[in-house]
Amino acid sequence: MAEAATREKALQEAELACARRGAQLTPLRRQVLELVLGAEAPIGAYALLDRLKSSRPGAAPPTVYRALDFLLEHGLVHKVERLNAYIGCSDAGHGHAHDHGHPHQFLICRRCGATMEIADHAVAHAIAEAAARAGFVAVEATVEIEGICARCAAT
Amino acid sequence: MAEAATREKALQEAELACARRGAQLTPLRRQVLELVLGAEAPIGAYALLDRLKSSRPGAAPPTVYRALDFLLEHGLVHKVERLNAYIGCSDAGHGHAHDHGHPHQFLICRRCGATMEIADHAVAHAIAEAAARAGFVAVEATVEIEGICARCAAT
DNA sequence: GGGTCGATGATATAGTGTTTCACCCGACTG
DNA sequence: CAGTCGGGTGAAACACTATATCATCGACCC
Ligand SMILES: [Zn+2]
Ligand SMILES: [Zn+2]
Ligand SMILES: [Zn+2]
Ligand SMILES: [Zn+2]
Questions:
Q1: How does the record describe its quaternary structure (chains A, B) (predicted)?
Q2: Which of A50, A91, A132, B147 is the most buried (most CB within 10 A)?
Q3: CATH number for the domain formed by residue range(s) A103-155
C-alpha cells in the first residue's frame, strides 16, 4: 500500500463493506487492517504483532491471528502463501455477503519484494477450464507469480 | 502417488535424471523421495522425518530439509504452499540441467485431500501474458487450486 | 600427507500458527 | 431484575515448520 490518503480511503471502504455485511470492524481489527495497509510490502503476523504491541502491550499471537482471520474472511486482506505474509486487498469492499474473496493473483518481485495484486480474468478463466477438464470443481485458487517488477527491470 | 510399481518406475526415472544432470541421488535422498512418492497425499517435512526415523534413528529436521532441498532443486518433488507439504513430481526427469522446475499447477481436494499435479499450457500462458501486461517478468508461478475432486463430487 | 569439497550427524534456535481457559460485555429471555 | 447466551478479547502454553551452526566423514586431487 501507499500514501496515507489511500489508506484512509481503504479503511473507510472497509467500514462500509463491513456495515453492509453485518460484520463488526472493531477497533482492534481496524487497527490491524491499518497496519497491514501501512506496510510497504506483505507483512508477517509476528511483525504485525510487534507493531501492535506499541499501542497494545498485552497483544499476543492469537490477538493478531484472530484479527487476520476476520479480515481474510471478509476479503479485506489476503495471505501471500509464498511469503507467509499478509497484504491489503487492492479491491476490497466489492464482494457480496457470503462471497469470501474474489479471483486474484499476485506479482511478487524477487529483487525488491514489492507485491502487486491483479485480477486477471483470462487467468481465472484458464484455471477454471483446466480444473474442469480434470473433473475438478474449483472453488478458490492461489496464484503467486514470482519474477522481476517493472521498476527493478528498468534499473 | 499410487501403486508400488508406479513408485518404482518414478524412482528409476529419478536416478536417470540425476545421472544425466550429474547430481547425486544418494541413498538418503532416494529414501526421502521414496517416502514422498509413497505418501497418499502431500506430506509434511516432520511426517517424513517420523517415517525416516524408523530406519535412521539419528535423523533430525535438517536431514529431511536438506534432502527436500535437493529434490526440489532437481524438480523431483514440489512444495504445496497451501499445505506446507511436499509431493512427488508427476512428470519428473523431463527437465534439462539448470532447468529448475516446469510450469505446473495443483488441484487440491477440500474433502479428501487428494492433490493432483497438472501442467496446463493455457494457464501458464495466461499467467505470462497477465504478468507482461503489468510490465512484470515472470520467472516462476505457484498455482494451487482448491475445490472438490471428481471422486468426491461423485459421491 | 595435506587440502578441498560435498554429504551427513548433531544440537540449538528461529519463525509461524493453534489450543485452551478465562473474562468481559451487550443482547435477549423468563 | 436474574439468568443466560454469544461474540470478542486477554493470557499462557503449546504445536508445527524451517533454519543456523559447528563437527565429522569420506572421496578426490596434488
Ligand atoms: Zn483482493
Ligand atoms: Zn522490484
Ligand atoms: Zn512437476
Ligand atoms: Zn476428493
A1: Homodimer.
A2: B147
A3: 3.30.1490.190
